[in-house]
Structures are given as C-alpha cells and as structure tokens.
## 1
Amino acid sequence: LAGTVPEEERCTVERADASLTYSLFLQRFAFSRPVILRGVTDNSVFRALCTREKLLAAFGARPVRLSTANTYSYRKVDMPFQEYVEHLLKPQDPARMGSDTLYFFGDNNFTEWGPLFQHYVPPTFRIPGTSPAYSFGIAGSGSGVPFHWHGPGFSEVIFGRKRWFLYPPDKTPHFHPNETTLAWLHHTYPMLPPAKQPLECTLRPGEVLYFPDRWWHATLNLDTSVFISTFLG
C-alpha cells in the first residue's frame, strides 16, 4: 500500500537521558557521533499547539514554502498552509520521484510562525561558536528527505514517528539524489552488506536526535508527522 512503511525495531544510535551533562555531551557526542536524547525537554505545551485543528486555525490562510524532497531541493513552491494540509499531506506515492514530491520543512517565515516557535523548548546543549535556528515541518507517511549533510543540529518529533539513517562524513552512502528515501529503503537498503549499513533508529515524540557536523542523514516519516529541528549554524 502507498505509504505503508516498515518500522525497524533495532536502534544502533546511542541513547542518553537527562543525566547527560553538557561537558559529557561535548566530550562524547558533539564532534564525533549522533545520540538520541530522552527527557531533556518538555514540549507538552508546544505539542498541544501543533494539532491539525490548532495549526489550521492559526496559520491556515498563510502561505508556506514547500521544497522538493530530493537531496538538493532545487524547486520551491508557495501555497496556503490549508491547501497543503488538505491536498498534499498524504502518504508518499512509491512511484513518484523525490524531485517531484513537495515537502513542508525548513523554509519557515519566522515573523508569522514566531508566536508558535516561542513555545518550543529546545535542548539546552550548544556547540561553541554556533547560534540556533528553527526549522519546522509537517509531512505524510512514507515521505522524507534522501541523504544529505549540513552543519550540526537537533531534531525532535512532536507527533508521529520518524526513522533516521546516518553515515559519518567519511562514508558516503550509495543513493540517487532524486530518489525518495522510501524507494531507497525498498531498493538499496536490503542489498547493503553489514559493513555498509547506516546507523539508524526510529524517533518517537519527546525524543531528540543530535547529529554532528557533516554527517550524512536521510529521514523517513512512518506516520503523518510534525517535527522541528534546531540547526546550529
């Protein structure tokens, strides 16, 4: 079925809880490997504001900028948020290329979305010399962004489940930049020998993934998902 996505039970990304200190975060993870943090933020207030009804009431008539769900996101399309939710927020079509799939994530207008973002509680950990910027998104099951890399950051799931695949900077994954993550999962992933498999895990509401600078990563929404990232630029 379109949009039916398998969930992998195993998780090969290390986990940490609220007992993780800032000094230990810098020492063990900040510059070397990803980690999933649990219990480091309380975003129950933000979550309550991110239901379908609340978001449509507050932002339905406002325009959002959509990107194509491919590695380089060449194309941008503007449309009212309500139109995106009602017509495009649906399961990924397995036959559609990432370069032809529109995805709401990243190009947020901070003047208009600011009243929502002010209720978000980000992780307190920071990388010296960087400043945070939010990137908010909502997407259907089976959607996601194929492998790409950028600076370090955190990503938190507000609703739904989000599967992550990660490689260190010195291990370039085998993928096609215009193919969807869903297609990669079905066609390429099963053929990978153990030595070439990514680190991976499924993120659930309340969990935050940290990824270091220049780490390759691809994402796959297992459900209709609401998520927010804190990029450290």
## 2
Amino acid sequence: MEDPESEGAAPPPGLSSLLPPREFLRSRKGQLLLAESVLSFIIFICYIASLAASFMMAPLLEFLLALFLFFAYASKLNEKFKGVHWPLADFLRCVTAAIIYFAISIAAVSKYSDGASKAAGVFGFAATIVFAVDFYITFNDLVTFLKQGSSDSPEGRKTEDEDSDSDSD
C-alpha cells in the first residue's frame, strides 16, 4: 500500500491552510511584520499589567494593523486590491508607530516605577527600532517606485516630443 504523502499529494485542509506560506515568512517583509506583531502584543500585555494602562491602546492598534498587513501581504491582497497604495499606507503606519512607541516608551520609563511599565518601555524602544527599520526599507522601495513612475509622467513625454520635433526641423 502506497503512502499518499509520498505521491506529493497536498495535506488535508485544516489549520495549516490558515498559516502564511514559508516563502513569505522567510522574506524580509514577513519577518519585520511578524516582529512588529509580536512586539506590539508583548507591549500591550505589559501595559495591561502595569500602572501605565492608559497607554495600552496604541500597542493594541499597532498589533492589529501589523497582523492585518501580515496576512494581507501573505495572502497577496495587495495584488488583488490595486486601488489601495499599499507601500504608502505601510510607510505611514511604520512612521507613526515608531514615533508613538518612542513617545510612550519615554513616558512609561520616566513616569512610572513599576516593573511592567519599565518592561513595556524597553520593549517599546525595541519596537521603535523595528518600525524604524521597516519604514526605512519601505521608504527606499517607495522612492524606487516613484522614480519608475516619473519616467512615464507627462513632463518626460514633453521633452521627448520636443526632441523629436527639433530633430525633424
């Protein structure tokens, strides 16, 4: 009797169908989004357990946004929904998250004396660095994309038309 796994048959559907593909998990974007999600969740839990519970909303929102983008990129929603400018939305999310995490981490470390607030502040500084790396990489991708788009702009076509007109004279 042959083993169905040896024939290259697909595994039965289940929880594994909800997991993102390995290629995405190995990509730089996948690893950054996963790190952002994990750090945001840890910071959220730390703020819940601390005296600085008023700061818990920012990590919760960042966790949900990072998780949404993680699964959106993993399931290639960015290719299906062309109306949304995904790199720009991701860039703005990363910039605002880095600024917010930096600000609330300083406040949590300096104003509150309990251990959970200090831990949330330290993880917040780590999240600031991860979000800053992500927005730097996303910014470079965005600039490259915009430079490619500027060659198709009307200004680029005008100079080509003027050159061809002067050559025909």
